[in-house]
Amino acid sequence: RAITFIDTPGHEAFTAMRARGANVTDIAILVVAADDGIMPQTIEALNHAQAANVPIVVAVNKIDKPDANPAKVRSQLTEYGLVAEEFGGDTMFVDVSAREGLHIQELIEAVLLTADAGLDLRANPDKDARGVAIEAKLDRGRGAVATVLIQSGTLHVGDAIVAGTAYGRVRAMVDENGVTVTEAGPSRPVQVQGLSSVPGAGDTFLVTDEDRTARQIAEKREAVERNAMLAKSRTRISLEDFT
């Protein structure tokens, strides 16, 4: 079975990216170094996953290091509500070494077992695509490029789409390996070209029946955002201003 991984940076500065990652995933893998134990960004990532109400699998990494202490990690995370199965809890912990490639297959199996235990991850591929923009940028040669994750339906080259306040027709798509594809089904991430502007990370996208509809939806969303910003920028007038 195919699994799509969305990697978010561990550095503390990437708070928003971790929050978005938690919100678009079905299962969160919390990676904790066996030598360092839990760090501030570990707790932050855990809070995002718990706020998104997604199951958590813990990968205890760097077990190849001499000072690795996986038992300490299990003990520390117990304080935050993640109790390992061997301690009588319901959270799967897997000791791994990314550097040595140790127990990676066991981690994948833990993800699949967690999914099978309590999630219904079925999606209908035979309808217009919907999903979310994970990140986007303006490329000098290709224009606006958005990495989108299809959550239902199938996205095709030539489809009219709207993503946030951006709209357009899918001109080209490439997969995670840089290979050009003509369609992408549920749970597949692809880079999309052809949008009028750069959508915001976390913006939802959907396919419409024609370009005009996509443009109208985008313009309506833009007007809502503009009005919200204007309302926010207005200063409140108090009685003291009239005295």
UniProtKB/TrEMBL annotation:
Coiled coil: none annotated. Pfam families: EF-G_D2, GTP_EFTU. It comes from the Bacteria. Keywords: GTP-binding, Initiation factor, Nucleotide-binding, Protein biosynthesis. GO terms for molecular function: GTP binding; GTPase activity; translation initiation factor activity. Residues 1-122 form the Tr-type G domain. GO terms for cellular component: cytosol. Belongs to the TRAFAC class translation factor GTPase superfamily. Classic translation factor GTPase family. IF-2 subfamily. This is Translation initiation factor IF-2. It comes from Pseudoclavibacter chungangensis.
